[in-house]
Write a structure and sequence with these properties.
The structure holds two protein chains of two kinds. By secondary structure, chain A is mainly alpha-helical. Chain A has 25 helices and four strands. The longest helix of chain A has 26 residues, at 116-141. Chain A is globular and about 75 Å long. Chain A starts with a helix and ends with a helix. The model of chain A is unreliable at 506-515 (pLDDT under 50). Chain B is built from 26 helices and seven strands. In chain B, the strands form two sheets. In chain B, strands 4-3-5-7-6 form a five-stranded mixed sheet. A two-stranded antiparallel sheet of chain B has the order 1-2. In chain B, helix 9 packs across helix 11 (227-241) and helix 16 (305-319) packs across helix 19. The chains are: A mainly alpha, B alpha/beta. Chain A binds chain B through residues 214, 217-218, 221, 233-244, 300, 302, 304-306, 308-311, 313-314, 317, 346, 352, 355-356, 359-360, 363-364, 367-368, 370-371, and chain B through 8-17, 20, 297, 300-301, 304-306, 309, 389-390, 392-393, 396-397, 400-401, 404-405, 407-410, 412, 414-415, 418-419.
Amino acid sequence: MKKFIGFLLIVLFFAVTVTLLAAVIRGQVGNPIYHQTQEERNKKVGSPFESSGSTSRYALIEAIVEDKTFFFNEERARFSAPDIVEYNDKFFSIFTPGVSFFSMPFYVLGKYIGFPQLVTYLSTVLLSLINVTLVVFLARKLGAGLYSALLAGFIFIFATDALSYALTLTQHHLSVTLILLALLNIFGERTFLKNVWLGAIYGMGLLVDLPNGLMMFPIVVYALLKHLNFDKRADKTTISIKLKMVTLLVGLIPFLALFGWYNYQLTGSYTKIGQTIGRSEYFQPPEVREKYRLERENSDPFRPKLPFNTRDQLHNFNILLISNERGWIFYSPVVFIGILGLFLNHKKSQKKEFVIVATAVVLADFVIYSMFGAEGGWAFGPRYLIPAAAILSAAFGVAVERFRRNVFFIVAFIILLAYSLGVNTIGAMTTTQVPPKVEAVNLPNPIPYTYEYNLQLIDKNFTSSLIYNLYLFKFMSVREFLYAYYAIAITVIVGVYLFVLLENEKTEKLTGEKL
Amino acid sequence: MIGFNFPSLTLRIALSENTLKNLANFFEKYASVLLAVLLSVIAYLTFLIYLANGLGLAYNDARSHLDIGRRVVEGLKPGLAQLGSVWLPLPHALMIPTIWNDFMWHSGLAGALISMISFVGTGLVIYQFLKQLGVGLLGRLIGVLVFVANINILYLQSTAMTELLLIFTMTAGTYELVMWHKEEKILSLIKAAFWIMMASLVRYDGWFLLFFAAILIIFHTARKRGYKVAEGTFIFFATLAAFGVFLWFLWNQLIFKDALYFIFGPYSARAQQLQLEQAGVLATKGNILLSVKVYLYALLYNTGAFTAVLGALGMIVFWLNKKINSSVRIASTALLAPFLFNIIALYLGHSVLFIQGISGNTWFNVRYGVMMLPSIAIFVGYLVHKLIPLRATIIGLFIFVTFFAFANVDAVTIDDARVGSSQKNVAEVSGWLRDNAKGEKGFVLISAASHDAIIFTSTLPMKKFIHEGTGLYWENATTSPDRWARWIVMRTNDVNDTTFKLTQQSGQLEKYELVDSYPFADIYQLKSEYLGELNTEAVLPKQNK
């Protein structure tokens, strides 16, 4: 009976999660929904096409399915600008093709039923649900109880900017999926299949976004090291190397080959990647193009030539952590509780190595993006830290498990969570196109560079929510919709937390698994 | 022995325990020698790089330091008095054995050699420091790597700047001070006093270290042995450690007739700072928050933000580790002396530092931030030693960040040298002198205090120039320039240029024609009709003072 109730609760939990996600899916009224045809390419704020990070990937899908090509015609290129490359008089997406390849079947299905944009973007929503599940799994592996783990998953999707980016066609959720799968892969003994799968995940990660290769590097190194064994005796030390480590390549090579083939089709070189060529200025106004030309002519010969710029690290540490522009402290401070969760586990021998690898991935995410455009352009929150937020959310479940009855913890948790949930709900309901400070202050009509911009949109009774724009607008204002949404999310959290309090303390010992 | 197990596809490599132990012992025994050789090779190769691309002489101050050293051995009035005032004498004194050679002078090697030796020495001190703290081989090597794999350090060690010599002497002094706190051996106290004395003769940062070390010694001894012993120990220490300071006061009294000439004289930093204050650019004076901010930025830009964060974490881990003797932990606060000194100096207005983006759009003296690098390196080495689970992560990320720092040539000291206020492109002025004055008889009247860079870059011998340090030549040339100076190089209408200020009063400038005006100075040439009365030889008797 207990198990059945538990099962029902999990189903209810996911049902509510799906409902809350569905409630913020983007769209406008059309015939019956806007943005589904080539004539409905509106890129205004709040639309699914508001960001070129999504349009460039969507255009690639269209080009492949409709015209069987990786190149863009001028219309698609304009739709994707500025995230396009112009090379040998042809346009193509600046992004690696993984997201587009993954979402292609969704586009085909959507096209079949008349909603190509909606169904394509549902691929990311689906990924976000998968990520909630993976965070739950990961939290359980770390020793969190069932309900603490569910809470961890919920925190990840609703109290961080993962929610806003679940509604786009960007790389973030697919990257998180692959990273979490890789982390789960390293539990237990290494087998042939596990190695092949890890290699495949790594290859897919590169196809989705190149920095994934750096973020997943600690995971791969750890997996390789598990093939080494040091046997120390009195008179000698024997190093054993299991050669099945090379089976990682079996999974990796096909995806590298695919990547190479894709590059070859675009540039004539297997190793020349679009991102190294640079963005095209073709569709920029003449004065902007002239400005860039002059900058290039007068550029400092000592200027950084590679993408990762250490001079910006100080500034970017500030941006990612504490600035009101994109800092975690302002957008999702609840993730810091996850650091406590990692710390709690670092001494437990069964989980120590996993915690080290997970911490390495979080630090790698942070350090990489401290050297590489931390603002994320026009964005909501520190979007490049979404993978780190996923891992910390899983560890958050452990902290909740440990301190669930501690008054100070509960108070801190409530305050941080309530704030994080509120901020990210506002973001998901409006737009991800918040300008970076340096651009915001120079706009002809300056707009805020924080979530204050999103609040202004709410005040103007604006929302990007399809369900609201189709139906709910008749019954409530956007602000009332926001309050209702928030209230439901809080209710879920409170409810799950009550079950956390009632949960058996022995759960951790039952779920602990040797690495 | 290597074996292969086919069913399990496992390669086995057996190493005898003796071999491993011998290898470990070999590295432990010869680590210092191996490091010294490796660091020397790095120092040499790096010097060649910066010699080839010309950046080794980009700093205006580097050229001045070399000129000061050269003036001791060559010029119209050579001698030790040319060591001058304001700038402490040790760096220039150490150049004397080599700077007589034109190549050593004009390549900058006479000064760079001292920096390079200091670079190697500092690396070894960091290694020993960590060894004495009980840090394992990996942590020690990482500490040295943090210091060595820094473009700012590699650049500065290729120049005639004084940072590396100061870093070496201060770090060595701090190391011996910590050793004394740890073992209370008198020899360590003597060595500490020696190195701190040397530091006090390089830059005034060393004077602050002297003060800080004295406080630590008094505190340590008073706590353990009472006031009387503390007093005696302090006097013993200060007799050697403060000797350099005493000599400096004495030097100023003997040479300039004023023991405080280096503080209040016309070429002192104070005089410079007063000008800057009047111009409204000494923003840090009286503003502690801005002083901290500016110096922190300089520190972070020089060491790298990621490395600095690791160093801060290592520092906290070190100081909270109760297994380390509390005396050692207290003594190690001397590693923060450069940090405290620079902030105090900025706050009091004795130092000026411009950070691009905070102090306008330029850099100036940003290299001061590199002074904390050895301390940070030591703390990072300690952190790697203690944080065993995250060792691989920290080292991996450090290598990643450092790779891109090198690949993108992220060196704020080079930026200051290239485009900041520490550089002076005097190529045009110097080039004219080289092309027109080299083969001609006659002296060039010029203020070395304002235009040392021109003197250096012209590649003309020092004895071609009449400057403030040439005694009677200067006095005569500034009162009767038409009799002594075939060319005058000065900033016209700038009363801060001593040459202009004095020659204007002579009323003889009408006998000169303006050759051209350049960004940093104008060149005047004596009209041909007055050449007949010009002195072109060094005819004055040898001057003793």
